[in-house]
């Protein structure tokens, strides 16, 4: 397995700035995210405070970002990182049924806007999971409930339905759903995941559902759940001026480290994080 020098998680201004600066310094780098880059950037009607790019729409600035990484031949790995574990000399990044390794990581995940369901964090690893394709074999012949926040969750639900005795799908978004016939869809709002030592049931605004496991499939998960042991305060990753976290070799930049939520601030922090990661790697030689 190839071990990268730096793994960047996130394709907003901070993540793209980090990967560009890491590549300029000849590091073997991989970036996880979406080729569509930042969805928040697309919604910006006008940007006037990004130095050198006056009076641009979010989509225009996004096109400039896209051109920059294409010119530098940087490719984006469109896979969701579910967990990151510090292994001493490297980090293990869990991506569905695969694993990547990197000597250092830069978190540029943005702000997690989806609040956890009551009981979700307490029962994480005790029947609550964030990767259905990873843990589906554990629920062979059992009842599984999938709370999906995006279309990609439907693919995972279809996969789980091949193993589980029964799958319930709770969409947290509107649209057409492409689910197998043996999946039962519930248009109810989940209020709480209940259980003592393991998941027992889900409480809804109307009624409840007995289940052996619950997969909560979001666009992104909170940093503290993504990287166990990470120091987080009020949903923001704690860093110093070098964008270092409390975990050796782990850096963070952008909205995930705090306000102001500005693109130019995120890009600057991404550069600092990349330079700090490079310095960290060089110190290990």
UniProtKB/TrEMBL annotation:
The keyword Transmembrane helix does not apply. Keywords: Flavoprotein, Oxidoreductase. SUPFAM superfamilies: FAD/NAD(P)-binding domain. Residues 4-270 form the FAD/NAD(P)-binding domain. Gene3D superfamilies: FAD/NAD(P)-binding domain (3.50.50.60). The keyword Flavoprotein applies. This is Thioredoxin reductase. It comes from Clostridium folliculivorans. The gene is trxB3.
């Amino acid at each position: 397995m190839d071990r990268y020098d730096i793994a960047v998680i996130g394709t907003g201004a901070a993540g793209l700035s980090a990967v560009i600066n890491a590549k300029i310094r000849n590091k073997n780098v991989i970036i996880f995210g979406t080729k569509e880059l930042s969805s928040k950037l697309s919604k910006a009607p006008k940007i006037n405070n990004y130095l050198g790019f006056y009076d641009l729409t979010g989509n225009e600035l996004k096109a400039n970002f896209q051109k920059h990484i294409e010119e530098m031949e940087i490719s984006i790995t469109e896979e969701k990182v579910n967990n990151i574990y510090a292994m001493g000399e490297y980090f293990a990044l869990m991506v569905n049924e695969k694993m990547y390794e990197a000597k250092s990581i830069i978190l540029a995940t943005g702000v997690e806007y989806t609040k956890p369901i009551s009981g979700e964090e307490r029962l994480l690893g005790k029947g609550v999971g964030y990767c259905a394709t990873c843990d589906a074999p554990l629920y062979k012949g059992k009842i599984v409930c999938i709370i999906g926040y995006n279309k990609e969750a439907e693919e995972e639900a279809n996969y789980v339905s091949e193993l589980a005795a029964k799958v319930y799908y709770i969409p947290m978004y509107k649209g057409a759903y492409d689910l197998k016939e043996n999946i039962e869809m519930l248009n109810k709002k989940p209020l709480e995941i209940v259980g003592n030592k393991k998941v027992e049931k889900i409480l809804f605004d109307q009624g409840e559902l007995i289940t052996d496991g619950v997969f909560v499939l979001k666009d992104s998960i909170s940093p503290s759940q993504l990287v166990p042991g990470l120091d987080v305060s009020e949903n923001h990753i704690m860093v110093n001026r070098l964008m270092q976290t409390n975990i050796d070799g782990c850096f963070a930049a952008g909205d995930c480290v705090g306000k102001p939520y500005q693109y130019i601030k995120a890009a600057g922090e991404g550069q600092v994080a990349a330079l700090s990661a490079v310095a960290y790697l060089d110190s290990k030689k």
